[in-house]
Amino acid sequence: MSPSPRFSALAAAALALLARPAPGKADAATAPVIVLLAPDLEPSDVDDRAVGTLGARVRANGVNVVVVRRAVADIEHLAADSKRFIEVSGARGALWVDVGRPNEAALYLVTRDGEQVFGRTIAAPEGKTSATLETLANIAASVSAELLEGRIVELAPVNIPAPERPLERIAAIATPSIKPEPAPAPPPKPSAKADVASPPAPPPRPPRFFIPPPSPKIADIDRFPRLGFAVGYTGDSFGSTIPWQSAVSGLVTVSPSPNTFVGLGYNFVFPVHIDAFIGGYDLARHPIVALGGYRLVYSPWDFRLGGRTAMDIIEQTPDPIAPPPPPPHAPTSWRPPPPPTSRTEILFTAGPLLEVGYSFAGRFRAGAFLGIEILLNSPSPTLAPLDLKPDPARIITGLSLGVDLFVPAPLPRQKSAVAASNGR
C-alpha cells in the first residue's frame, strides 16, 4: 500500500518547521509566530506571489511567518493538520491561502486555542491576479492583528466536514517468499524404514519498509540573506558650471531579510571639458556610494525607502598653456609664473532615496530611483580659480537592473530507507 499523499505533505511540512533557523535578534526570537500555508501550483507562479505578498503584510505586524508549501489543499483535514503545524512551531495560528481556482480565492484560519475554522472567499476575476492577492494580503494583515489581540472579526466561521480515518503512515512492502517444489524422494531401499524428507524451504525474506522523503518547498521569499549586483544609469545636477552629468553605475547589494537592504557601489562619470577665462581643464569625478534602508514588498513590486551617501573624488587637469612673454623692461631675474597644476578635491554628500522595483524571472529586478543629496562640506579655495561651483543640494535619479547572485539553498532532502539501504 502506497503512503498517503496527505500525510507525506504533512510530515514534510512538520520537518520544515523543525528545521527553521533561529532568528538573529533577541526581539525576533520572542515575536509571535503564525504559520502561512499555500499550495504548490507549479509551473504557475501565483502561489509564490501569494506567499510573498501575504507574508510581507503579516510580518509588518511584528510576527514571524513560517511558510509551508503543500501539493494540494485538503479542506476536509484543515483543522487537524493545522493543529499539528501549530503544535510543532508554537504558533498562534495557521493561515491557509487557497489560490489557483478559477474565479475565486479563499483564506482560512485555525487558532491555537480553538477548534473552529474561520474563512472568507473572495472573487478572483481572470486577469486580476495582483488585485486579488492584494485583497487577500489586506485580509491576512487584519486577521493576524486580530489573532494577536485574541479576537476574530474579519473572518466568518466555516463548517468543515469531519475528516476521514487517517491512513497508515508507513507502508510495509513485503516481498513474497518463494517455496521451491520439494525434490522427489529417491526410491526406498529394501531395508529403509522411512522415506527421506525433502529439504526445508528457505525462510521468507524480511519485509522492506519505505518511508517517503520529506519534500518541503520553502518559498524563495523566505530564503535570506541574499547577495546581488546591479548596473544602470545615474544622473545628477552637479552645479552651475556642469548642469547635468551622467554615469554608468555598479552596485553590490546585501539583503539580510525581505524588508532590509544595504549596498556599496561606484559611478563611472563621463569626463567633461570646461572652458575657463584662460585655457580650460578636464574634470573627472569618481563617486563611491553607500546606501541602505527599508523595503516594502507587494509582489512582484517593491518600494525601497532609505538613504544614500557618497564620497565624490574630483580630479581637475588644466590644459597646457604657453608661458606669458616677459613684460617690457623686465629685470633679468624675472621668471614666468608656473603653469597650473592638477588638483584633487573630495566632496561628501548624503540624502534620502526612493526607489520602485519590479521582480521578474525569479532572481531579476528592474528599478527606478529618485533622491536628493545635500553637500556636507564646503569646497576648498582651490576650486575658485577654476570656477567649479557645486550646488549645495543635488537631484539624483537613475535606472537599474539587478540580479541575485547568491540565494541560500532550500533544506536538503532526506534519503528514503530503501535508497539508504541500497547505498544511493
Secondary-structure blueprint of this entry?
Elements: H1 5-18, H2 26-30, E1 33-39, H3 46-59, E2 64-70, H4 78-89, E3 93-98, E4 103-111, E5 117-124, H5 129-149, E6 156-158, E7 171-173, E8 208-210, E9 226-236, E10 245-257, E11 260-269, E12 272-275, E13 280-298, E14 301-318, E15 343-360, E16 364-375, E17 393-406, H6 417-421
Parallel strand pairs: 1-2, 1-3
Antiparallel strand pairs: 3-4, 4-5, 5-6, 7-8, 9-10, 9-17, 10-11, 11-13, 12-13, 13-14, 14-15, 15-16, 16-17
How would you describe this structure to a colleague?
The protein is an alpha+beta fold. The protein folds into two domains: 5-158, 3-Layer(aba) Sandwich (Rossmann fold); 224-320 and 339-406, Porin (Beta Barrel), CATH 2.40.160.20. Helix content is 17%, strand content 39%. The strands form three sheets. Strands 9-10-11-13-14-15-16-17 form an eight-stranded antiparallel beta barrel. It has a six-stranded mixed β-sheet with strand order 2-1-3-4-5-6, sandwiched between helices. Strands 7-8 form a two-stranded antiparallel ribbon. The longest helix is centred in the first third of the chain and has 21 residues, at 129-149.
CATH architecture of the largest domain: Beta Barrel
Query: What is the N-to-C succession of helices and strands?
Result: HHEHEHEEEHEEEEEEEEEEEEH
Number of strands: 17
Radius of gyration: 35 Å
Note the main attributes of this structure.
about 425 residues; alpha+beta; Rossmann fold; Porin; eight-stranded antiparallel β-barrel; 6 helices; about 15% helix; about 40% strand; elongated; disordered C terminus
